[in-house]
Amino acid sequence: MTAVVQAEGLTKYYGRRRGLEDLTLDIRAGEIFGYLGPNGAGKTTTIRLMLDVIRPTRGQVRVLGVDARQAAVRSRIGYLPGELVLDGRERARDHLAFLARQRGGVPPGRVEALAERLDADLSVPMRKLSKGNKQKIGLIQAFMHEPELLILDEPTGGLDPLVQQEFLAMVREVRAAGRTVLMSSHVLAEVEHVSDRVGIVRAGRLVAVENVATLRERAVRTVEFHFDAPVPREAFEGLPGVRDLRVEGASVRCTIDGRPDPLVKAAARFTVVHMVSAEPDLEEIFLTYYSEEGRDHDLQVSA
Amino acid sequence: MIFKSLRDQRRPLIGWTLGLSVFFVLYVGVVYPSIAEDPATYSAQAVAKYPGALRDLMGGLQDFATAPGYLQSVVYQLLLPALFIVCAMGLAGRSLAGPEESGTLELIVTLPITRRMLVVQLFAALALGLLAVAAVTLLVAWAVAWSAGMDVGFDRILAAHTGVYLLALLFGTVTLAVGAATGRRAVATATVGAWAVLGYMVVTVGKNVDAVSWLRWVSPFHYYAEGRPLYQGFPAGDYLVLAGAAAVLALTAVLAFDRRDVGV
Questions:
Q1: Is B4 in contact with A88 (Cβ distance < 8 A)?
Q2: What is the pLDDT of residues B235-258, one digit of tens each?
Q3: Where among A183, A215, A247 does a domain terminate?
Q4: In a mutagenesis test of the A interface, which of B7, B94, B106, B110 is the best target, namely the one with the most A β-carbons within 10 Å?
Q5: A55 part of contact set with chain B, CB < 8 Å
Q6: Do residues A187 and A131 both lie within one domain?
Q7: CA dist., res. A244 & res. A223, Å (int)
Q8: How would you classify the pairing of strands A197-202 and A32-36?
Q9: Is residue A303 part of a domain?
Q10: Which domain holds residue A246?
Q11: What is the ipTM of this complex?
Protein backbone atom coordinates (compact mmCIF):
# COMPACT_ATOMS: atom_id res chain seq x y z
CA MET A 1 0.00 0.00 0.00
CA THR A 2 1.37 3.40 -0.89
CA ALA A 3 1.98 5.89 1.85
CA VAL A 4 -0.62 8.58 2.50
CA VAL A 5 2.08 11.18 2.95
CA GLN A 6 5.47 10.78 1.27
CA ALA A 7 8.07 13.43 1.91
CA GLU A 8 11.38 13.19 0.12
CA GLY A 9 14.29 15.44 0.95
CA LEU A 10 11.77 18.08 1.92
CA THR A 11 13.59 21.28 2.80
CA LYS A 12 12.35 24.75 3.57
CA TYR A 13 14.34 27.88 4.20
CA TYR A 14 12.76 31.22 5.03
CA GLY A 15 15.39 33.42 3.47
CA ARG A 16 18.48 32.18 5.26
CA ARG A 17 16.63 30.91 8.29
CA ARG A 18 16.14 27.16 8.30
CA GLY A 19 12.61 25.90 8.73
CA LEU A 20 13.05 22.25 7.79
CA GLU A 21 16.02 20.31 6.50
CA ASP A 22 15.90 17.21 4.34
CA LEU A 23 12.79 15.53 5.72
CA THR A 24 12.13 12.06 4.39
CA LEU A 25 9.08 10.45 5.93
CA ASP A 26 6.26 8.08 5.04
CA ILE A 27 2.96 8.13 6.83
CA ARG A 28 1.01 4.93 6.30
CA ALA A 29 -2.65 4.55 5.56
CA GLY A 30 -4.75 3.96 8.66
CA GLU A 31 -2.26 5.02 11.27
CA ILE A 32 -2.20 7.83 13.78
CA PHE A 33 1.11 9.55 13.48
CA GLY A 34 2.26 11.81 16.29
CA TYR A 35 4.57 14.55 15.15
CA LEU A 36 6.56 15.83 18.07
CA GLY A 37 9.05 18.52 18.72
CA PRO A 38 9.67 21.64 20.73
CA ASN A 39 8.15 24.91 19.56
CA GLY A 40 9.88 26.20 16.46
CA ALA A 41 11.34 22.79 15.54
CA GLY A 42 9.68 22.68 12.12
CA LYS A 43 6.38 20.91 12.78
CA THR A 44 4.18 23.66 11.43
CA THR A 45 6.55 24.18 8.49
CA THR A 46 6.18 20.52 7.56
CA ILE A 47 2.41 20.67 7.82
CA ARG A 48 2.08 23.86 5.79
CA LEU A 49 4.27 22.32 3.08
CA MET A 50 1.89 19.35 2.92
CA LEU A 51 -1.01 21.74 2.34
CA ASP A 52 0.80 23.88 -0.22
CA VAL A 53 0.45 27.00 1.90
CA ILE A 54 4.22 27.39 1.56
CA ARG A 55 6.49 25.93 -1.12
CA PRO A 56 9.54 23.75 -0.51
CA THR A 57 13.02 25.11 -1.14
CA ARG A 58 14.06 21.58 -2.17
CA GLY A 59 12.51 18.15 -2.27
CA GLN A 60 8.87 17.28 -2.65
CA VAL A 61 5.91 15.97 -0.75
CA ARG A 62 3.14 13.77 -2.09
CA VAL A 63 -0.19 13.58 -0.30
CA LEU A 64 -2.77 10.84 -0.98
CA GLY A 65 -0.77 9.80 -4.00
CA VAL A 66 -0.50 13.16 -5.75
CA ASP A 67 1.83 16.13 -5.55
CA ALA A 68 0.80 18.46 -2.73
CA ARG A 69 0.63 21.28 -5.28
CA GLN A 70 -2.59 19.80 -6.68
CA ALA A 71 -5.43 21.85 -5.22
CA ALA A 72 -8.08 19.18 -5.77
CA VAL A 73 -6.49 16.77 -3.29
CA ARG A 74 -7.31 19.13 -0.45
CA SER A 75 -10.97 18.13 -0.57
CA ARG A 76 -9.77 14.79 0.83
CA ILE A 77 -7.80 16.40 3.65
CA GLY A 78 -9.05 17.87 6.91
CA TYR A 79 -6.73 20.52 8.26
CA LEU A 80 -6.63 22.25 11.60
CA PRO A 81 -4.10 25.11 11.55
CA GLY A 82 -1.82 25.55 14.54
CA GLU A 83 -2.81 29.15 14.82
CA LEU A 84 -6.44 29.08 13.93
CA VAL A 85 -7.92 32.51 13.33
CA LEU A 86 -11.68 32.86 12.97
CA ASP A 87 -12.96 36.37 12.78
CA GLY A 88 -15.78 38.56 11.63
CA ARG A 89 -19.48 38.90 12.25
CA GLU A 90 -20.26 35.68 10.43
CA ARG A 91 -21.80 32.99 12.58
CA ALA A 92 -19.79 29.81 13.00
CA ARG A 93 -22.58 27.78 11.37
CA ASP A 94 -22.48 29.89 8.21
CA HIS A 95 -18.72 29.72 7.96
CA LEU A 96 -18.79 25.94 8.33
CA ALA A 97 -21.46 25.74 5.63
CA PHE A 98 -19.25 27.80 3.32
CA LEU A 99 -16.21 25.59 3.95
CA ALA A 100 -18.35 22.49 3.45
CA ARG A 101 -19.65 23.68 0.08
CA GLN A 102 -16.14 24.48 -1.11
CA ARG A 103 -14.99 20.98 -0.19
CA GLY A 104 -17.80 19.35 -2.09
CA GLY A 105 -20.40 18.93 0.61
CA VAL A 106 -20.92 17.32 3.98
CA PRO A 107 -23.56 14.74 4.93
CA PRO A 108 -26.60 16.47 6.46
CA GLY A 109 -26.60 16.57 10.25
CA ARG A 110 -22.90 15.89 10.42
CA VAL A 111 -21.92 19.37 11.59
CA GLU A 112 -24.65 19.40 14.24
CA ALA A 113 -23.60 15.98 15.50
CA LEU A 114 -19.98 17.08 15.83
CA ALA A 115 -21.02 20.33 17.51
CA GLU A 116 -23.03 18.36 20.03
CA ARG A 117 -20.15 16.00 20.76
CA LEU A 118 -17.75 18.85 21.33
CA ASP A 119 -20.35 21.05 23.01
CA ALA A 120 -19.78 23.89 20.54
CA ASP A 121 -22.16 26.78 19.99
CA LEU A 122 -22.60 27.44 16.26
CA SER A 123 -24.88 30.44 16.52
CA VAL A 124 -22.30 32.88 17.90
CA PRO A 125 -20.49 35.35 15.62
CA MET A 126 -16.97 34.01 15.23
CA ARG A 127 -15.17 37.05 16.63
CA LYS A 128 -17.03 36.53 19.91
CA LEU A 129 -15.85 32.93 20.36
CA SER A 130 -13.33 32.16 23.09
CA LYS A 131 -10.06 30.44 22.18
CA GLY A 132 -11.36 27.04 23.23
CA ASN A 133 -14.58 27.47 21.29
CA LYS A 134 -12.70 28.56 18.18
CA GLN A 135 -10.63 25.42 18.49
CA LYS A 136 -13.84 23.37 18.59
CA ILE A 137 -15.04 25.04 15.38
CA GLY A 138 -11.61 24.30 13.92
CA LEU A 139 -11.99 20.62 14.81
CA ILE A 140 -15.51 20.46 13.38
CA GLN A 141 -14.36 21.88 10.04
CA ALA A 142 -11.45 19.45 9.94
CA PHE A 143 -13.58 16.37 10.70
CA MET A 144 -16.89 17.25 9.04
CA HIS A 145 -16.22 16.08 5.49
CA GLU A 146 -14.82 12.75 6.69
CA PRO A 147 -11.48 13.27 4.98
CA GLU A 148 -9.12 10.42 4.18
CA LEU A 149 -6.31 12.30 5.88
CA LEU A 150 -6.54 14.55 8.91
CA ILE A 151 -3.69 16.95 9.53
CA LEU A 152 -4.04 18.51 12.95
CA ASP A 153 -1.50 21.05 14.14
CA GLU A 154 -1.49 21.22 17.95
CA PRO A 155 -5.12 20.14 18.11
CA THR A 156 -5.65 20.10 21.86
CA GLY A 157 -4.56 23.67 22.61
CA GLY A 158 -7.23 25.52 24.57
CA LEU A 159 -9.54 22.52 24.99
CA ASP A 160 -10.71 21.54 28.44
CA PRO A 161 -9.96 17.95 29.58
CA LEU A 162 -13.43 16.56 28.85
CA VAL A 163 -13.40 17.87 25.31
CA GLN A 164 -9.85 16.57 24.90
CA GLN A 165 -11.10 13.09 25.75
CA GLU A 166 -13.92 13.42 23.25
CA PHE A 167 -11.45 14.62 20.65
CA LEU A 168 -9.16 11.62 21.24
CA ALA A 169 -12.17 9.35 20.86
CA MET A 170 -12.96 11.00 17.52
CA VAL A 171 -9.38 10.46 16.38
CA ARG A 172 -9.58 6.76 17.30
CA GLU A 173 -12.83 6.44 15.35
CA VAL A 174 -11.12 7.91 12.32
CA ARG A 175 -8.43 5.26 12.57
CA ALA A 176 -11.01 2.54 13.09
CA ALA A 177 -12.61 3.64 9.81
CA GLY A 178 -9.25 3.09 8.09
CA ARG A 179 -8.47 6.76 7.65
CA THR A 180 -5.21 8.42 8.59
CA VAL A 181 -4.30 11.09 11.13
CA LEU A 182 -1.20 13.23 11.49
CA MET A 183 -1.19 15.25 14.67
CA SER A 184 1.54 17.46 16.00
CA SER A 185 2.29 18.41 19.55
CA HIS A 186 5.13 19.71 21.64
CA VAL A 187 4.30 17.36 24.49
CA LEU A 188 4.31 13.62 24.15
CA ALA A 189 1.57 13.07 26.74
CA GLU A 190 -0.97 14.57 24.34
CA VAL A 191 -0.36 12.04 21.61
CA GLU A 192 1.20 8.94 23.17
CA HIS A 193 -2.11 7.29 24.07
CA VAL A 194 -3.52 7.42 20.56
CA SER A 195 -0.47 7.40 18.31
CA ASP A 196 0.79 4.29 16.56
CA ARG A 197 4.05 5.91 15.62
CA VAL A 198 5.71 9.14 16.55
CA GLY A 199 8.25 11.23 14.70
CA ILE A 200 10.45 13.64 16.54
CA VAL A 201 11.76 16.83 14.98
CA ARG A 202 14.35 19.04 16.49
CA ALA A 203 15.84 22.20 15.00
CA GLY A 204 14.37 21.45 11.57
CA ARG A 205 15.52 17.83 11.38
CA LEU A 206 13.62 14.60 11.87
CA VAL A 207 15.69 12.86 14.55
CA ALA A 208 13.67 9.68 15.07
CA VAL A 209 10.57 7.79 14.04
CA GLU A 210 9.46 5.28 16.63
CA ASN A 211 6.71 2.80 17.18
CA VAL A 212 4.92 3.78 20.37
CA ALA A 213 4.35 0.17 21.49
CA THR A 214 8.04 -0.63 21.09
CA LEU A 215 8.91 2.54 22.83
CA ARG A 216 6.68 1.71 25.74
CA GLU A 217 8.20 -1.75 25.97
CA ARG A 218 11.63 -0.22 26.05
CA ALA A 219 10.78 2.51 28.45
CA VAL A 220 12.15 2.67 31.96
CA ARG A 221 9.55 2.16 34.60
CA THR A 222 9.63 2.13 38.38
CA VAL A 223 8.30 -1.00 40.05
CA GLU A 224 7.63 -1.60 43.72
CA PHE A 225 6.80 -4.91 45.46
CA HIS A 226 5.66 -5.35 49.05
CA PHE A 227 5.90 -8.84 50.56
CA ASP A 228 4.48 -10.40 53.72
CA ALA A 229 7.98 -10.95 55.10
CA PRO A 230 11.48 -9.52 54.53
CA VAL A 231 13.15 -10.80 51.37
CA PRO A 232 16.84 -11.40 50.62
CA ARG A 233 18.47 -8.86 48.33
CA GLU A 234 20.29 -11.63 46.39
CA ALA A 235 16.96 -12.90 44.99
CA PHE A 236 16.66 -9.74 42.90
CA GLU A 237 20.25 -8.95 42.08
CA GLY A 238 21.53 -9.45 38.58
CA LEU A 239 18.13 -9.72 36.90
CA PRO A 240 18.21 -8.48 33.30
CA GLY A 241 17.03 -4.88 32.99
CA VAL A 242 16.77 -4.26 36.70
CA ARG A 243 18.54 -1.20 38.03
CA ASP A 244 18.62 1.03 41.10
CA LEU A 245 17.64 -1.89 43.24
CA ARG A 246 16.66 -1.02 46.80
CA VAL A 247 15.63 -3.75 49.22
CA GLU A 248 14.33 -2.54 52.60
CA GLY A 249 12.91 -5.26 54.78
CA ALA A 250 9.75 -6.54 53.10
CA SER A 251 9.76 -4.07 50.20
CA VAL A 252 11.68 -3.98 46.92
CA ARG A 253 11.95 -0.98 44.68
CA CYS A 254 13.77 -0.77 41.39
CA THR A 255 13.56 0.62 37.89
CA ILE A 256 13.22 -1.73 35.00
CA ASP A 257 14.29 -1.35 31.43
CA GLY A 258 12.27 -3.33 28.89
CA ARG A 259 10.12 -6.31 29.79
CA PRO A 260 9.35 -6.88 33.48
CA ASP A 261 9.09 -10.65 33.07
CA PRO A 262 12.25 -11.77 34.97
CA LEU A 263 11.47 -9.43 37.82
CA VAL A 264 7.89 -10.67 38.12
CA LYS A 265 9.05 -14.28 38.12
CA ALA A 266 11.65 -13.53 40.80
CA ALA A 267 9.02 -11.82 42.94
CA ALA A 268 6.56 -14.67 42.47
CA ARG A 269 8.72 -16.92 44.67
CA PHE A 270 7.61 -14.85 47.66
CA THR A 271 4.16 -13.81 48.85
CA VAL A 272 3.31 -10.49 47.19
CA VAL A 273 0.85 -8.39 49.18
CA HIS A 274 1.02 -5.22 47.09
CA MET A 275 2.57 -4.10 43.84
CA VAL A 276 2.98 -0.70 42.18
CA SER A 277 4.09 -0.19 38.61
CA ALA A 278 4.29 3.39 37.40
CA GLU A 279 3.36 4.32 33.82
CA PRO A 280 6.46 4.28 31.67
CA ASP A 281 7.78 7.76 31.36
CA LEU A 282 8.16 8.18 27.62
CA GLU A 283 8.70 11.86 28.09
CA GLU A 284 12.07 11.06 29.55
CA ILE A 285 13.05 9.12 26.43
CA PHE A 286 12.14 12.04 24.32
CA LEU A 287 14.11 14.45 26.37
CA THR A 288 17.14 12.24 25.79
CA TYR A 289 16.40 12.26 22.07
CA TYR A 290 16.21 15.98 22.04
CA SER A 291 19.41 16.49 23.95
CA GLU A 292 21.55 13.66 22.53
CA GLU A 293 20.68 14.39 18.96
CA GLY A 294 21.34 17.98 19.70
CA ARG A 295 24.81 17.19 20.92
CA ASP A 296 25.56 15.00 17.89
CA HIS A 297 24.30 17.68 15.64
CA ASP A 298 26.41 20.35 17.27
CA LEU A 299 29.46 18.13 16.91
CA GLN A 300 28.77 17.68 13.22
CA VAL A 301 28.48 21.37 12.78
CA SER A 302 31.73 22.13 14.53
CA ALA A 303 33.61 19.32 12.78
CA MET B 1 -16.35 32.34 -3.19
CA ILE B 2 -17.50 35.48 -5.01
CA PHE B 3 -20.71 35.49 -3.05
CA LYS B 4 -18.88 34.88 0.21
CA SER B 5 -16.48 37.75 -0.42
CA LEU B 6 -19.35 40.11 -1.21
CA ARG B 7 -21.26 38.93 1.83
CA ASP B 8 -18.26 39.54 4.08
CA GLN B 9 -18.00 43.06 2.70
CA ARG B 10 -21.66 43.93 2.71
CA ARG B 11 -21.33 46.42 5.54
CA PRO B 12 -18.66 48.57 3.88
CA LEU B 13 -20.48 48.24 0.55
CA ILE B 14 -23.75 49.48 2.01
CA GLY B 15 -21.92 52.16 3.99
CA TRP B 16 -20.13 53.51 0.93
CA THR B 17 -23.28 53.47 -1.15
CA LEU B 18 -25.14 55.48 1.48
CA GLY B 19 -22.22 57.84 2.05
CA LEU B 20 -21.75 58.59 -1.64
CA SER B 21 -25.49 59.09 -2.07
CA VAL B 22 -25.50 61.63 0.75
CA PHE B 23 -22.54 63.30 -0.94
CA PHE B 24 -24.58 63.71 -4.12
CA VAL B 25 -27.61 64.99 -2.28
CA LEU B 26 -25.51 67.61 -0.48
CA TYR B 27 -23.32 68.75 -3.35
CA VAL B 28 -25.82 68.56 -6.14
CA GLY B 29 -29.18 68.72 -4.43
CA VAL B 30 -28.42 71.41 -1.83
CA VAL B 31 -25.38 73.44 -2.90
CA TYR B 32 -25.92 73.62 -6.64
CA PRO B 33 -29.33 75.32 -6.66
CA SER B 34 -27.97 78.29 -4.70
CA ILE B 35 -25.07 78.62 -7.12
CA ALA B 36 -27.36 78.38 -10.11
CA GLU B 37 -29.42 81.27 -8.73
CA ASP B 38 -26.52 83.65 -8.94
CA PRO B 39 -23.97 82.23 -11.40
CA ALA B 40 -21.95 85.39 -11.91
CA THR B 41 -21.08 85.90 -8.25
CA TYR B 42 -20.22 82.32 -7.47
CA SER B 43 -18.24 81.84 -10.62
CA ALA B 44 -16.15 84.90 -9.90
CA GLN B 45 -15.77 83.89 -6.26
CA ALA B 46 -14.56 80.44 -7.18
CA VAL B 47 -11.98 81.82 -9.55
CA ALA B 48 -10.82 84.35 -6.98
CA LYS B 49 -10.65 81.78 -4.20
CA TYR B 50 -8.42 79.39 -6.06
CA PRO B 51 -5.64 81.22 -7.81
CA GLY B 52 -3.21 79.80 -10.36
CA ALA B 53 -1.88 76.37 -9.56
CA LEU B 54 -4.60 75.68 -7.04
CA ARG B 55 -7.18 76.23 -9.72
CA ASP B 56 -5.33 73.78 -11.93
CA LEU B 57 -5.45 71.32 -9.07
CA MET B 58 -9.22 71.67 -8.99
CA GLY B 59 -9.35 70.97 -12.68
CA GLY B 60 -9.56 74.53 -13.96
CA LEU B 61 -13.00 75.46 -12.61
CA GLN B 62 -14.28 76.51 -16.02
CA ASP B 63 -18.00 77.09 -16.36
CA PHE B 64 -18.27 76.60 -12.65
CA ALA B 65 -21.83 77.85 -12.50
CA THR B 66 -23.21 75.84 -15.41
CA ALA B 67 -24.67 72.43 -14.73
CA PRO B 68 -22.05 70.31 -16.55
CA GLY B 69 -19.27 72.62 -15.38
CA TYR B 70 -20.35 72.31 -11.76
CA LEU B 71 -20.71 68.56 -11.95
CA GLN B 72 -17.34 68.27 -13.65
CA SER B 73 -15.31 70.52 -11.38
CA VAL B 74 -16.96 69.94 -8.03
CA VAL B 75 -18.11 66.34 -8.24
CA TYR B 76 -16.36 64.32 -10.93
CA GLN B 77 -13.04 66.15 -10.98
CA LEU B 78 -11.68 65.23 -7.58
CA LEU B 79 -14.07 64.47 -4.75
CA LEU B 80 -16.06 61.59 -6.18
CA PRO B 81 -13.08 59.74 -7.72
CA ALA B 82 -11.09 60.23 -4.51
CA LEU B 83 -13.90 58.79 -2.39
CA PHE B 84 -14.45 55.94 -4.81
CA ILE B 85 -10.75 55.09 -4.87
CA VAL B 86 -10.62 54.97 -1.08
CA CYS B 87 -13.65 52.67 -1.16
CA ALA B 88 -12.00 50.39 -3.74
CA MET B 89 -8.75 50.36 -1.77
CA GLY B 90 -10.63 49.30 1.35
CA LEU B 91 -12.55 46.54 -0.40
CA ALA B 92 -9.48 45.17 -2.15
CA GLY B 93 -7.35 45.37 0.99
CA ARG B 94 -9.90 43.42 2.97
CA SER B 95 -10.26 40.74 0.34
CA LEU B 96 -6.74 39.24 0.31
CA ALA B 97 -3.94 41.02 2.18
CA GLY B 98 -6.15 41.75 5.18
CA PRO B 99 -7.16 38.10 5.75
CA GLU B 100 -3.57 37.02 5.15
CA GLU B 101 -2.30 39.37 7.84
CA SER B 102 -5.01 38.43 10.32
CA GLY B 103 -4.58 34.71 9.61
CA THR B 104 -8.10 33.89 8.40
CA LEU B 105 -6.73 33.21 4.91
CA GLU B 106 -5.03 30.01 6.12
CA LEU B 107 -8.27 28.00 5.97
CA ILE B 108 -9.25 29.57 2.66
CA VAL B 109 -6.02 28.75 0.79
CA THR B 110 -6.25 25.17 2.03
CA LEU B 111 -9.63 24.68 0.40
CA PRO B 112 -9.62 22.57 -2.75
CA ILE B 113 -9.46 25.63 -4.97
CA THR B 114 -6.39 26.74 -6.87
CA ARG B 115 -4.67 29.92 -5.85
CA ARG B 116 -5.30 31.34 -9.30
CA MET B 117 -9.01 30.69 -9.15
CA LEU B 118 -9.12 32.19 -5.67
CA VAL B 119 -7.63 35.49 -6.83
CA VAL B 120 -9.77 35.55 -9.98
CA GLN B 121 -12.86 35.18 -7.83
CA LEU B 122 -11.74 37.82 -5.36
CA PHE B 123 -11.15 40.16 -8.28
CA ALA B 124 -14.59 39.37 -9.66
CA ALA B 125 -16.11 40.10 -6.25
CA LEU B 126 -14.25 43.42 -6.13
CA ALA B 127 -15.46 44.37 -9.60
CA LEU B 128 -19.05 43.39 -8.78
CA GLY B 129 -19.04 45.12 -5.40
CA LEU B 130 -17.78 48.35 -6.91
CA LEU B 131 -20.25 47.99 -9.75
CA ALA B 132 -23.11 47.76 -7.26
CA VAL B 133 -21.94 50.91 -5.48
CA ALA B 134 -21.49 52.67 -8.83
CA ALA B 135 -24.90 51.61 -10.16
CA VAL B 136 -26.82 52.79 -7.11
CA THR B 137 -24.93 56.07 -6.87
CA LEU B 138 -25.42 56.63 -10.61
CA LEU B 139 -29.17 56.47 -10.13
CA VAL B 140 -28.94 58.77 -7.11
CA ALA B 141 -26.74 61.19 -9.08
CA TRP B 142 -29.14 61.28 -11.97
CA ALA B 143 -32.20 61.67 -9.74
CA VAL B 144 -30.62 64.46 -7.71
CA ALA B 145 -29.35 66.25 -10.80
CA TRP B 146 -32.78 66.03 -12.36
CA SER B 147 -34.53 67.30 -9.24
CA ALA B 148 -32.03 70.17 -8.93
CA GLY B 149 -33.00 71.19 -12.44
CA MET B 150 -29.64 70.40 -14.01
CA ASP B 151 -29.58 70.36 -17.76
CA VAL B 152 -27.34 67.32 -18.12
CA GLY B 153 -28.41 64.19 -19.99
CA PHE B 154 -28.41 60.75 -18.36
CA ASP B 155 -25.96 59.52 -20.98
CA ARG B 156 -23.42 62.14 -19.93
CA ILE B 157 -23.72 61.27 -16.23
CA LEU B 158 -23.49 57.61 -17.17
CA ALA B 159 -20.32 58.35 -19.15
CA ALA B 160 -18.70 60.23 -16.25
CA HIS B 161 -19.81 57.62 -13.73
CA THR B 162 -18.40 54.81 -15.85
CA GLY B 163 -15.08 56.63 -15.78
CA VAL B 164 -15.17 56.84 -11.99
CA TYR B 165 -15.99 53.16 -11.81
CA LEU B 166 -13.12 52.14 -14.08
CA LEU B 167 -10.72 54.41 -12.23
CA ALA B 168 -11.72 52.96 -8.87
CA LEU B 169 -11.56 49.42 -10.26
CA LEU B 170 -8.06 50.09 -11.54
CA PHE B 171 -6.80 51.37 -8.19
CA GLY B 172 -8.64 48.58 -6.38
CA THR B 173 -6.90 46.07 -8.61
CA VAL B 174 -3.55 47.70 -7.86
CA THR B 175 -4.33 47.21 -4.16
CA LEU B 176 -5.24 43.58 -4.81
CA ALA B 177 -2.10 42.99 -6.90
CA VAL B 178 0.34 44.56 -4.44
CA GLY B 179 -1.43 42.75 -1.61
CA ALA B 180 -1.21 39.48 -3.54
CA ALA B 181 2.48 39.97 -4.22
CA THR B 182 3.55 41.13 -0.75
CA GLY B 183 0.86 39.97 1.64
CA ARG B 184 1.05 43.37 3.32
CA ARG B 185 -2.01 45.55 3.33
CA ALA B 186 -0.07 48.64 4.41
CA VAL B 187 2.29 48.30 1.44
CA ALA B 188 -0.65 47.96 -0.93
CA THR B 189 -2.43 50.98 0.53
CA ALA B 190 0.73 53.10 0.45
CA THR B 191 1.42 52.16 -3.18
CA VAL B 192 -2.06 53.08 -4.29
CA GLY B 193 -2.11 56.27 -2.22
CA ALA B 194 1.19 57.46 -3.67
CA TRP B 195 0.26 56.55 -7.24
CA ALA B 196 -3.14 58.20 -6.99
CA VAL B 197 -1.92 61.45 -5.44
CA LEU B 198 1.10 61.79 -7.75
CA GLY B 199 -0.96 60.75 -10.75
CA TYR B 200 -3.54 63.37 -9.99
CA MET B 201 -0.91 66.08 -9.48
CA VAL B 202 0.75 65.23 -12.78
CA VAL B 203 -2.41 65.68 -14.85
CA THR B 204 -3.51 68.86 -13.08
CA VAL B 205 -0.71 71.04 -11.71
CA GLY B 206 1.93 69.26 -13.75
CA LYS B 207 0.31 69.41 -17.14
CA ASN B 208 2.03 72.67 -18.00
CA VAL B 209 5.36 71.63 -16.55
CA ASP B 210 7.44 69.96 -19.26
CA ALA B 211 9.62 68.08 -16.80
CA VAL B 212 6.71 66.04 -15.46
CA SER B 213 3.98 66.35 -18.07
CA TRP B 214 5.17 63.25 -19.95
CA LEU B 215 4.42 61.28 -16.77
CA ARG B 216 0.72 61.76 -17.45
CA TRP B 217 0.85 58.64 -19.59
CA VAL B 218 1.26 56.51 -16.47
CA SER B 219 -1.35 58.42 -14.52
CA PRO B 220 -4.75 56.76 -14.58
CA PHE B 221 -6.30 60.18 -14.19
CA HIS B 222 -5.02 61.09 -17.64
CA TYR B 223 -7.40 58.53 -19.06
CA TYR B 224 -10.17 59.56 -16.75
CA ALA B 225 -10.29 63.32 -16.44
CA GLU B 226 -9.12 64.52 -19.82
CA GLY B 227 -11.91 63.04 -21.85
CA ARG B 228 -14.42 65.48 -20.34
CA PRO B 229 -17.28 62.95 -20.58
CA LEU B 230 -19.84 65.40 -19.19
CA TYR B 231 -19.32 67.54 -22.26
CA GLN B 232 -18.44 65.01 -24.91
CA GLY B 233 -19.89 61.69 -23.83
CA PHE B 234 -17.98 58.40 -23.69
CA PRO B 235 -14.23 58.66 -24.27
CA ALA B 236 -14.12 55.06 -25.44
CA GLY B 237 -10.37 54.85 -26.06
CA ASP B 238 -9.42 56.22 -22.66
CA TYR B 239 -11.85 53.95 -20.87
CA LEU B 240 -10.53 50.94 -22.72
CA VAL B 241 -7.05 51.83 -21.49
CA LEU B 242 -8.34 51.92 -17.89
CA ALA B 243 -10.20 48.63 -18.26
CA GLY B 244 -7.24 46.99 -20.01
CA ALA B 245 -4.85 48.15 -17.31
CA ALA B 246 -7.16 46.73 -14.63
CA ALA B 247 -7.24 43.39 -16.48
CA VAL B 248 -3.44 43.27 -16.76
CA LEU B 249 -3.07 44.09 -13.07
CA ALA B 250 -5.62 41.43 -12.15
CA LEU B 251 -3.56 38.91 -14.09
CA THR B 252 -0.46 40.11 -12.26
CA ALA B 253 -2.26 39.56 -8.96
CA VAL B 254 -3.22 36.04 -10.00
CA LEU B 255 0.32 35.08 -11.02
CA ALA B 256 1.99 36.79 -8.05
CA PHE B 257 -0.20 35.05 -5.49
CA ASP B 258 0.21 31.69 -7.18
CA ARG B 259 3.97 31.77 -6.62
CA ARG B 260 4.10 32.84 -3.04
CA ASP B 261 4.38 31.41 0.46
CA VAL B 262 1.27 32.53 2.30
CA GLY B 263 1.38 33.94 5.78
CA VAL B 264 5.09 33.75 6.56
A1: no
A2: 888 999 999 999 999 999 999 999
A3: A215
A4: B110
A5: yes
A6: yes
A7: 11
A8: parallel
A9: no
A10: 220-277
A11: 0.85
